Structure to design on (582 residues):
């Protein structure tokens, strides 16, 4: 009997995918340029090829992407991470410095080279020392000729959202992790941006349906997003297709993505505002005059007015926990390895505020952890060699892993896992305390790569360890990455050694030489005795015995009041001290 039409079409589409798998090459010369995206303040930003905003990366599922990076910053190192991509077999292309690569020094060149087999909405950004909010971030879109939703829309639109600072990250970070800021109050953004500007106009044709791909590439603020007069139908989150689900308002944390279908009206009678509104709950002190909102317009008729956004009374965003993946993958119900991470914020002996998993704050290793895996032979399965401050979690190949994250902090935090998507099998409301058990887990949990944990609440995530590599798990608030809210997952290290033996390109190792970063041995760079961690990078020591965090904060405050004056305290705010350290 002849082939059925559907299997005939299927084989054609496989054939086309195979034939058209292309190599997409980008040459990125990274340098300082000036920009004034909020119209208020012109500042140095990190551009590419002399321009800012940065170009989006676009590819089709199956393509190879090559990004040749030249660091022309002159005064800073850099690196690129491709957020949400699994980097299966190419862990060394993942981007975080001291984890999967050495920093690209000023004057250095470094090639990222990987294939993409995941469709959807992603982004890329620097993964070097809190650098991306200085402008080095942009969307990364992977088209899919086989998308289950392709017949549901006519055209595609990409819109990024972000917060924006007038200050540069270097000095902001120095002030943030400092005895002058014992409560750990994060710098508050100066503005919100849409597509790296404000007042964006998006031309809309009546009657058409658009796939609107949205990315929050901010440093800190989540944004509420809504389109006046139009409903959204969510069809993708973080690269996972979902059953089309209606929503009037989204809550997009830093690093999350949503694709939604928006059907245009049939008439061109009016234009409509859309709004991104930064979640001010995240800010310890809301500076007078801050406008948390950014407005853009769906423009049906350029000659008609662009009405101001209507004020809304309450934020009632869609709950992403209720989403169902299109593939209806069932819950991973047999857990082989459960990991509990208790997170908190607290002071160390230097008086500054840090973030902790299980009482350890992350400090970058001297040797990139991947290179420790690749140069440690059979010792690679011994967690000790990865050092005392990397929060290492060793996973065996193919095991089903569960991460229970208990947020012992009154803030909201968006957690991201590299190299994987995860099932979100449980998520509490505010103030629920530590996870004990959950008898009503969803049978087909939503999956994504970045998820919000609520204040003093918990999340439970599951995934299978099928991607050998060194993968970070961290809060995507860039301030909290700097203060140590990071764990290092070391997945199936012996298979990783076999996969990558002899495969680290010469320009990756050259970056180590040129940045004086050791590329062999344990976390301390010891190649002889891997169990000897003398000289490893460590966090400041704990508070002196007898001092409580509250005590040292009070001491610091009285010193500050005496020596520096109330102005500094006013700047960071007195109130959060109680909230953050109690
Ligand atoms: C956007 O429009 C508002 C209101 O007119 C204006 O204050 C602001 O400067 C504009 N932003 C930019 C970047 O042009
Ligand atoms: C690097 O250069 C930029 C642009 O000139 C400057 O604004 C910035 O302060 C410098 N950064 C450091 C760390 O010196
Ligand atoms: C990218 O990697 C592929 C597969 O290893 C290799 O054939 C190709 O030469 C590489 N391209 C560049 C520009 O390094
Ligand atoms: C927003 O910026 C992206 C590039 O990052 C661009 O591709 C897209 O067309 C822009 N969207 C609109 C509506 O102008
Ligand atoms: C626009 O018109 C078409 C055809 O008459 C109709 O099917 C559709 O529901 C209308 N759309 C809206 C948003 O009213
Ligand atoms: C921002 O939008 C919210 C929601 O509509 C509104 O309550 C608030 O007043 C707006 N803020 C400013 C400064 O416009
Ligand atoms: C994991 O499963 C894959 C595919 O079945 C297999 O090739 C691999 O050897 C397994 N890895 C381990 C460490 O068992
Ligand atoms: Cu955080």
């Amino acid at each position: 009997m002849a082939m059925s039409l559907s299997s005939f079409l299927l084989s054609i589409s496989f054939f086309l995918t195979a034939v058209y798998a292309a190599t997409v090459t980008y040459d990125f010369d990274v340098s300082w340029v000036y920009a004034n995206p909020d119209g208020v303040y012109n500042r140095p930003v990190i551009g590419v090829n002399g321009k800012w905003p940065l170009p989006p990366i676009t590819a089709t599922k199956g393509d190879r992407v090559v990004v040749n990076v030249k660091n022309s910053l002159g005064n800073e190192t850099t690196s690129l991470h491709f957020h949400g991509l699994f980097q299966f077999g190419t862990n060394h292309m993942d981007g975080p410095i001291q984890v999967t690569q050495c920093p690209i020094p000023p004057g250095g060149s470094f090639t990222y080279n990987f294939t993409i087999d995941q469709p959807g909405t992603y982004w890329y950004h620097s993964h070097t020392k809190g650098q991306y909010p200085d402008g080095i971030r942009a969307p990364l879109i992977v088209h899919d000729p086989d998308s289950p939703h392709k017949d549901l829309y006519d055209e595609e639109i990409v819109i990024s959202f972000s917060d924006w600072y007038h200050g540069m990250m270097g000095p902001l970070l120095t002030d943030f992790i400092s005895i002058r800021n014992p409560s750990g109050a994060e710098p508050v953004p100066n503005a919100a941006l849409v597509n790296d500007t404000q007042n964006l106009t998006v031309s809309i044709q009546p009657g058409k349906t658009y796939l609107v791909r949205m990315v929050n590439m901010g440093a800190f603020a989540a944004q509420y997003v809504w389109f006046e007069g139009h409903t959204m139908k969510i069809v993708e989150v973080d690269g996972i297709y979902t059953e089309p689900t209606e929503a009037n308002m989204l809550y997009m944390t830093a690093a999350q993505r949503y694709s939604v279908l928006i059907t245009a009206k049939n008439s061109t009678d009016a234009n409509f505002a859309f709004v991104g509104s930064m979640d001010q709950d995240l800010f310890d002190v809301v500076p007078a005059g801050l406008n948390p909102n950014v407005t853009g317009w769906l423009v049906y008729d350029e000659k008609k007015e662009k009405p101001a956004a209507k004020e809304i009374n309450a934020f009632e965003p869609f709950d992403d926990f209720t989403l169902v993946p299109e593939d209806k993958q069932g819950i991973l119900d047999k857990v082989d390895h459960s990991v509990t991470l208790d997170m908190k914020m607290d002071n160390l002996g230097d008086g500054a505020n840090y973030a902790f998993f299980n009482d350890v704050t992350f400090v970058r290793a001297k040797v990139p952890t991947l290179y420790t895996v690749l140069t440690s032979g059979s010792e690679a399965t011994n967690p000790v060699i990865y050092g005392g401050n990397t929060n290492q979690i060793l996973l065996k190949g193919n095991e089903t892993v569960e991460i229970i994250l208990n947020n012992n902090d009154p803030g909201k935090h968006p957690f991201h896992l590299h190299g994987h998507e995860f099932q979100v099998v449980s998520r509490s409301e505010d103030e629920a305390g530590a996870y004990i058990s959950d008898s009503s887990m969803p049978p087909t949990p939503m999956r994504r790569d970045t998820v919000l944990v609520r204040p003093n609440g918990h999340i439970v995530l599951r995934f299978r360890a099928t991607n050998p590599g060194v993968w970070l798990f961290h809060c995507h608030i860039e301030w909290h990455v700097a203060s140590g809210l990071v764990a290092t997952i070391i997945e199936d290290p012996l298979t990783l050694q076999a996969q990558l033996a002899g495969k680290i390109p010469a320009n990756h190792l050259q970056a180590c030489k040129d940045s004086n970063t050791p590329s062999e041995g344990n976390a301390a760079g010891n190649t002889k005795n891997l169990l000897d961690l003398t000289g490893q990078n460590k966090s400041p020591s704990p508070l002196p015995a007898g001092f409580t965090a509250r005590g040292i904060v009070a001491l610091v405050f009285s010193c500050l009041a005496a020596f520096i004056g109330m102005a500094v305290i006013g700047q960071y705010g007195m109130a959060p001290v109680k909230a953050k350290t109690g």
